[in-house]
Amino acid sequence: MTDFVLVHGAWHGAWCWRRVVTALWKQGHRVFTVSLTGVGERAHLLSPAITLETHIEDVVQVLIAEELKDCVLVGHSYAGMVITGAATRQPNRIGKLVYLDAVVPRPGDAWSTSHPQSIQAERRHVIAELGMLLPPDPAIFGLSGADRDWVARRLTPQPGGVYDAPLMFDQGSWLAMSRTFIDCHDPALPSMAGMRERVRTQSGWTMIEIATGHDAMISAPERLVEALLAPPYQGKLR
Q: What is the CATH number of domain 3-237?
């Protein structure tokens, strides 16, 4: 039995893991899903005071409260920032880090760092006006039909205070951890291009490819579960 902690990306909530949670339960694993402050069922807490630090603490408190050891900590998209911060603060509780088509930061990076300057400017303008980032059309995540509609109904605004918040962490502690990157490349989300290149040139990674879109937990839950349960190796899942 393995303990999994699943952390959603921007605009999402714990709801997005529904299909993955059911599959992992059936195989006898324990699963803890985190809804970050201000989104998902916690959207009523949306506030300019929410920062990256808030979201890191959301995850840290789950690790502590559930007394987890050697868990698999999974972060999707933006949550690569979050799990990196949480894991380096509670390294003894982590058995493996999984970056699901996620941001892989360097010390001092913010979520915004990996985005082109044009996107940074656009998002900063929206944050200055609204204090938040409105959800995009889920079609950009490779979703269509009923799945797209299901996700569109549930996406909520992302707290603006997390966008430019830098993450400082002990890179040595992080590099010593078991790390897997799951590359969802069909269709590939353009903003993840730099992350895919980074992990392919940095030692210590297990790379798994899944031929699906960015929201693999929705579009390819069976293949994602297979990837989450895979031992460290270099491979592709199609």
A: 3.40.50.1820
201 touches 207 (CB < 8 A):
no
Cα 78 to Cα 7, 95, 97, 143: the distances in Å are 9, 21, 14, 18
**Coil, strand or helix: which one is 221?**
helix
For residue 231, what pLDDT band results from cuts at 50, 70 and 90?
confident
Task: Give bridge partners of residue 97 from the DSSP assignment.
Answer: 73, 179
Distance CA 111, CA 165 (A): 7
Burial class of residue 238 in the structure, from the number of CB atoms within 10 Å of its CB (0-12 exposed, 13-18 middle, 19+ buried): exposed
In whole angstroms, how large is the CA radius of gyration of the chain?
16
| Residues annotated as part of the active site | 77
Do the strands 158-159 and 3-7 form a parallel or antiparallel pair, or are they unpaired?
Answer: unpaired
Mean pLDDT of the chain: 95
Task: Identify the helix (H) or strand (E) that includes residue 132.
Answer: strand 132-133
The confidence band for 50, taking pLDDT boundaries of 50, 70 and 90, is very high
Separation CA 85–CA 224 (nearest Å): 23
Q: Which two tokens stand for residue 24?
A: 């992992």
| pTM of the shown model | 0.96
Alpha carbon distance 147, 152 (integer Å): 9
Residue 53 CA to residue 101 CA, distance in Å, equals 21
Using alpha carbons, list the distances in angstroms from residue 181 to 30, 61, 97, 135, 150. Answer: 21, 24, 9, 25, 26
The string of pLDDT tens digits covering residues 64-105 is: 999 999 999 999 999 999 999 999 999 999 999 999 999 999
